Amino acid sequence: MEDYEPMRKTVRATLQKRHDLQIVGEASDGLEAVQQAVELKPDLILMDIGLPSQNGIEAAREIRELVPKAKILFLSQETSPEVIQEALSVSASGYVVKVNAGVELIPALEAVISGKQFVSGR
Fold first, then answer.
1. Where are the beta strands (DSSP E) in the chain?
2. Is the confidence at residue 122, as pLDDT, over 60?
3. Neighbour count for residue 68 (Cβ, 10 Å)
4. pTM of structure
5. DSSP letter at 68?
6. Mean pLDDT value of segment 91-97
7. Which of 7, 59, 63, 74 is least buried, going by the fewest C-beta atoms within 10 A?
8. Contact 77/50 with Cβ under 8 angstroms?
9. In what side-by-side order are the strands of the sheet with 94-97?
């Protein structure tokens, strides 16, 4: 769930390299993210924090209640330890800083899928 289309394309291209992953939906704002999570019930949700209409942390809180089995991995430009801690406090499985996504996104996905927590090395 990312509001910036070029970043969504980059993430999509990265994920499509992995044949064991299937992209089932995309959203550009927090409300749409919650709606799609409820409809699609994905195993893993990649979520930005800075989303319009409802930020990613608020959306993640709702998703956690409505789709409790979904794992949430934040992908955000936010590097503040307080923001990262707040993101993880909603039971997110991981956090990747966007500037590190080229190197960390796939290892983060692998960690989260296998039940581990991943936090960007910054």
1. 44-47, 71-76, 94-97, 118-119
2. no
3. 8
4. 0.89
5. T
6. 94
7. 7
8. yes
9. 44-47, 71-76, 94-97, 118-119
Q: Which domains, and CATH codes, for the chain?
A: 5-119 (3.40.50.2300)
pLDDT of 69:
95
Helix (H, G, I), strand (E, B) or coil at 53: coil
Q: Tokens for 3?
A: 């509001």
Distance of CA 2 to the CA centre of its chain: 9
Q: With contact defined as beta carbons under 8 Å apart, do 105 and 75 qualify?
A: yes
Q: What is the residue-wise DSSP string for 43-90?
A: SEEEE-SS-SSS-HHHHHHHHHHHSTT-EEEEEES---HHHHHHHHHT
Angle between helices 81-89 and 56-66 (to 10 degrees): 20
- Say what angle helices 30-40 and 56-66 make with each other, to 10 degrees: 20
**How many CB atoms are located within 10 Å of the residue 81 CB?**
9
Which residues pair with residue 94 across a beta bridge?
A: 73, 118
